[in-house]
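Deliverable D4.2, example record:
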Amino acid sequence: MDRRVRKTREALEQAFLAMERQQPVNEITVAALTTLADVGRGTFYLHYQDVADLQRQVISARVSVFMTQFTTQAPPLINGTYQDWLASLVAALEQQRALFAMIRRSPQAGPVRDQIVTGFCQVIAGPPLAVQYTVNGGVGVAASWLAGTLEVPAAQLVAFLDHQLQSLTTA
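Output generated by the structure prediction step:
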């Protein structure tokens, strides 16, 4: 991708993310976005159909990077535990908390959750039924933790998820 195109898209994405934290997506206008990003309206429409398309593309790109980081290979079992891998996963979730909050508020929440579950199910070893159950539960627990409805320290979340993954080897 051309450097100027990347720069323009990044400016629009950053403007969108800043505005999305302040107001609902359906209240964000192309005019306000382009003013904040310092690009023309026509330039916006060269890259996106509308604000919803921009949101879809932002979510898709960022979830793809996240999933590539954690689903390109099976989680490593080190000294009988998955805690190192899970600690990096939970840290990444925490770092991307704003992204996951935006996803939760978007129409893409269900499809993104399905994408995440499918990705993790493909790399976690164990009986398929147990893997599905564990991954769906783990994604749900992580989502509640990110949303703030499950108030536990990150270390406790890692320990719980580690126990769940270890139980797959005995299932």
